[in-house]
Amino acid sequence: QAFFCLLLCIPWGSSCPPSCQCTERAGAKAVLCSSRHLEEIPKDIPRDAVFLKLDANSITRIPSNAFRHLSHLEELDLSRNAIEKIDRAAFKGVAAGLRTLDLSSNRIRSVPKEALLALSAKLRLANNPWHCGCALQEVLWEARLDPDSVQDITCHTAPREEYVGKPLLQVLDAGVNFCSARHRTTDVAMFITMFAWFAMVIVYVICYVRHNREDTCKHVGYLKSLPSTQGHAE
């Protein structure tokens, strides 16, 4: 009975994943899962965790609602993993309270801007094989990035070869605007679509007029072929 009483008295949210170490840091729960060969985010992280270190593992993806139950989370370290994909709602539930998020040294080429722009946390995004485009540019302009790591956000791929290997900030400071290029492409596509539609309308009108003209000519010819009323009278 004492054993079952002890189980009931232990708060379920305070259990620690077997692959991690849970400790106190400045009176707050810290969950340390560094270098544990993890391939995904543990499901049983204590709900009262304030600091969570998942660095130096083999995690490849951050799924939607991965940290939703961690309403007290303030610092999240996902650096030095193999992360390639981040879902749009990956940080749903922790966006308001998160203060720092480290995604550096992963394999991230692109990320939905909604996933990061919803955060007020200081972001570290350095040393990833980024594709420099409009989404990353908007993150750089609107998100709260760690100033010490901004210079290490480098273009691994880009719309033009001359930008490859350069820091994104340097490319943008040179006057490049990836978003305006996308808008121009959209405008050209819209113009072509409107032109094609207008051309179809013109062709339809021409065909309609020509068809009516032919019908009119046939009708006039038919009337001319009829015997006149005056001829019958004679």
Could you explain the architecture of this structure?
This protein is 35% helix and 14% strand. The N and C termini lie far apart (130 Å). Strand 1 and strand 2 (28-32) form a beta hairpin. The chain has helices at residues 2-9, 113-117, 134-142, 168-173, 178-225, 229-233; strands at 21-25, 28-32, 49-53, 61-62, 75-77, 85-86, 100-102, 122-124, 130-131, 155-157. The longest helix is centred in the C-terminal third of the chain and has 48 residues, at 178-225. The strands form 3 sheets. A 6-stranded mixed sheet has the order 1-2-3-5-7-8, with no helix packed on it. Strands 4-6 form a two-stranded parallel sheet. It has 2 domains: 21-176, Ribonuclease Inhibitor (Leucine-rich repeat, LRR (right-handed beta-alpha superhelix)), CATH 3.80.10.10; 177-209. The protein contains 6 helices and 10 strands, in the order αβββββββαββαβααα. By secondary structure, it is α/β, with parallel strands linked by helices. This is Leucine-rich repeat-containing protein 3.
Pick out its properties.
234 residues, 6 helices, 2 domains, alpha/beta, disordered N terminus, Leucine-rich repeat, LRR (right-handed beta-alpha superhelix), 6-stranded mixed beta sheet, 14% strand
